[in-house]
Amino acid sequence: MWAAPLGLHSADADHILRSGFKYELQGRNWRLLTKKLATPGSKVTVVAFGGSVTVGHYATSENSSWPEEAVAWMQAAFPEVEFTLMNLGHGATTAAIASLCYYQDMPPNPDLVMVEYSINGCGALQCMRPSQPEVAGYENLLRNIMLRAPEAALISLGVFNWRTDVYKGVEIPNAYFSTGEDQHAIIAKRYGVPYVSVRDALFDVLYNDTLAKQKLGFTREEMLKGDPIHPKLIGAQMYGGGFVAWAKQLDRDNICYAGMALKHRPVSNNGWEWVDEGRSDCRVPGCHKYGWTTKTVGASLDFELDTSQVLSQEDRQAGYKVALVIVFLRSHMNNPEREQGPQRGMGVALVSCISGCKCEPLKIDAVNTDRSSELDSLRTQVSSHAKCMIRIEILDESSSFGGHKFRLNGIALSAYTDDVPSGLPARLLFNKNHLLAVEKFVEDVPEPED
């Protein structure tokens, strides 16, 4: 039976956790979920999306994750209902990647879908404006979930990086706005998705050890597993238990080859190796990091893709195009503890169409200047052809340490139009004219006088 930390049983803790609920609204399909929860013998399927915080099951901490704790809380609250959880979290990935590929792994007809993507891809102020790609990716993920599971209830969770900085000898909290949740919450509200903010609930508590111990029963350091992002079991219980306590335009499936689906797609392989650079000590699928990798200049992979199946005749008449999307590892270096010299550096790959179809060559530098490692995606327009042959080749170029490592994690084909930012079709919340007006306003703002 799930048991919350002692402090979480208090009235103060209950008030603190509920303060993270951003919008008191009638959530999308929550009436359907409520009816099932109130019916003995019902079977409720829960799906979770997110990064490594959602995956959980850390090697250095207890064997758990916040989605499991949330489902355990629900099971304890509704003992006559049978719950099944599918954790589709993937470490070091962003909502944009999930919106291309991982949403397709959902089981048929889930009852509740939980989404967490406020840190990955947004930890260095990449999600401050609606026009930024990772914000668009978050909206596209919600839309794809709703298309694939139209009767599912949705709820979003925003976690937080609880790091501190030192300024003039004084330790100060991480910036309150250093997250993607503010833009994500606007999108969630637009689609009728309740949003739960860990930051809003705990910011004033966790940065005060005395207060945290009094109100929650543990401190920030005791909640985290040794870094400022990933919670121990006690933190997962708080995120999961508190999470539950906070009580047709053009859309289509993308064509995506990621994970094990990518393994057998190459028709020619010169110098690449299939790897799993994830964790072997974890039973959650999202712990694996499958992909093709190489460190050799000139190494190439060829893929044959059917790009003619992406657009309908109506799509073409409406001006839609086909995007070839490459999903890859962007990192600041490669295994610095174990390798030296040029072997530590990330490389540069060239994506080109070599027969059947045409596309603008796409050069991808896998170096991440933010000194983190996570999946990223870049696209180029590709023409329609039943046998589109593309090649990914490592160039004799490098912008870090002189190395050439490159890891390919997926290939996707997606429809897009120039009228929508970031190539994500039919976004309801924003349009091109609005975004141009916003960006013009920002550009026209005068510099402050000294």
Account of the protein in words:
The protein has 450 residues and is an alpha+beta fold. The chain is 26% helix and 24% strand. The protein contains 13 helices and 18 strands. It has helices at residues 11-18, 30-37, 52-55, 66-77, 95-100, 133-148, 181-190, 198-206, 209-215, 220-223, 233-245, 313-317, 432-444, and strands at 43-49, 82-87, 112-116, 153-158, 164-167, 170-173, 195-197, 255-258, 266-270, 273-276, 290-294, 300-305, 321-330, 348-355, 362-365, 374-382, 388-394, 406-416. Strands 8, 10, 11, 13, 16 and 18 form a 6-stranded antiparallel β-sheet that branches. It has a 5-stranded parallel β-sheet with strand order 2-1-3-4-7, sandwiched between helices. Helix 4 (66-77) packs across helix 11 and helix 6 (133-148) packs parallel to helix 7 (181-190). It is globular and about 65 Å long. 47% of the residues are buried. Residues 1-7, 247-251, 335-342 and 420-450 have low confidence and may be disordered.
Give a brief rundown of this model.
With 450 residues, this protein is an alpha+beta fold. Helices cover 26% and strands 24% of the residues. The strands form four sheets. Strands 8, 10, 11, 13, 16 and 18 form a six-stranded antiparallel sheet that branches. The protein has a five-stranded parallel sheet with strand order 2-1-3-4-7, sandwiched between helices.
